[in-house]
UniProtKB/TrEMBL annotation:
Cellular component aspect of the GO annotation: cytosol
Residues annotated as domain Glycerol-3-phosphate dehydrogenase NAD-dependent N-terminal: 4-162
Taxonomic path: Bacteria, Bacillati, Bacillota, Bacilli, Bacillales
The protein's name: Glycerol-3-phosphate dehydrogenase [NAD(P)+]
Residues binding substrate, per UniProt: 106, 257-258
Gene name linked to the record: gpsA
Length: 351
């Protein structure tokens, strides 16, 4: 594998392009913006998304979807969840049947509630065999990856040979890559942890301490696992890099857009003000709405997500949302987890 294409040139896409370039691949970044492409090609920078970083010489940018799609032996899709289908449709006419397809987007499609691998499989029907999309996820802030800070991620695919091909393409001395066959679990964990990160930012913005955050992360992981198991994931995935690893990184770092959004909401900003000030996609906002629809579809309770949904879309005061969570009726901890995990191993939904 000698060439790779990355769709699109945001912070995460640019950081992963640098990882691929460090591995010796000739990388093409696709962007809709002529000015951004010119900046990348002439200055070797992408200041809006990775300020201060100098890009490797074997990265260049293009606005031509045909050139971008034909270029890569590996096609990496890092478009926002809301744009993934549109980007895939643009690329499909120029795809070859032998390209490795990877995505690194953490979210669900709003209208269909589909995971991103399913969106890509739908759009690439006739070109790509089912089960051939590789998912890259895990605790990985673009701001640290671009600086070659030690980072460990996971790639998931139902076809081990494709996961291993992606592993070989991405692994570097600073970017360690594990494989996992549980595509559903990796995608669900990566998407839902953004909801808990919104809550973590809110908790910090309200001045709550470590006790509150520890409880939020722990019970948040239980919610992620509960819905994930109902959707067919392996519960062990949530104890790994895509689960607890990514949850900790996203909920405890100021690099996280979702954490920053929650913090600003706790300070009294409106959702529109928060999104405008951050200036980039905050996937947790869309995912919160999707999670409520998924909880209804699968009959799963998500109390944290429900309270965050009320704050984001119904104008509920963040402090009142915390009080509602603390005032819930008595329940068990271990018994619920054991029952749900056992049901997953049996291949049946938890009762």
């Amino acid at each position: 594998m000698k060439k790779a294409t990355v769709f699109v040139a945001g912070s995460w896409g640019t950081a992963l392009a640098a990882v691929l370039a460090d591995n010796g691949l000739e990388v093409l970044l696709w962007t809709r913006g002529e000015a951004q492409a010119q900046e990348i090609n002439e200055r070797r920078t992408n200041e809006k998304y990775v300020p201060g970083a100098k890009l490797p010489p074997n990265i260049r940018a293009t606005t031509s979807i045909e050139e971008a799609t034909r270029h890569g032996d590996l096609l990496l899709f890092v478009a926002p969840s809301s744009a993934m289908r549109d980007v895939a449709r643009l690329a499909k006419p120029f795809m070859r049947g032998d390209q490795l397809i990877v995505h690194a987007t953490k979210g669900f499609e709003a209208d269909t509630l589909l995971r991103m691998s399913h969106v890509l499989e739908e759009e690439f029907a006739g070109v790509l065999e089912p089960g051939s999309v590789v998912v890259l996820s895990g605790p990985s802030h673009a701001e640290e990856v671009i600086l070659r800070s030690p980072t460990t991620v996971v790639v998931a695919c139902s076809r081990p040979e494709l996961a291993e091909a992606a592993q070989d393409a991405f692994i570097t001395p600073a970017f360690r890559v594990y494989t996992n066959p549980d595509v559903a679990g990796v995608e669900i964990a990566g998407a839902l942890k953004n909801i808990i990160a919104l809550g973590a930012g809110m908790s910090d913005g309200l001045g709550f301490g470590d006790n509150a955050k520890a409880a939020l992360l722990t019970r948040g992981l239980a919610e992620i696992g509960r819905l994930g198991v109902a959707m067919g994931a392996n519960p062990l995935t949530f104890a790994g890099l895509a689960g607890v690893g990514d949850l900790v990184a996203t909920c405890t770092s100021r690099h996280s857009r979702n954490w920053r959004a929650g913090y600003k909401l706790a300070e009294g900003a409106t959702l529109d003000e928060v999104l405008e000030s951050i200036g980039m996609v905050v996937e947790g906002v869309r995912t919160t709405k999707a999670s409520i629809a998924l909880s209804e579809r699968y009959g799963v309770e998500l109390p944290i997500a429900e309270q965050l949904h009320a704050v984001l879309f119904q104008g509920k005061n963040p402090r009142s949302a915390v009080e509602a969570l603390m005032g819930r009726g008595r329940t068990h901890e271990i018994e619920d987890i054991v029952r749900e995990a056992a049901a997953a191993f049996r291949g049946a939904p938890a009762e």
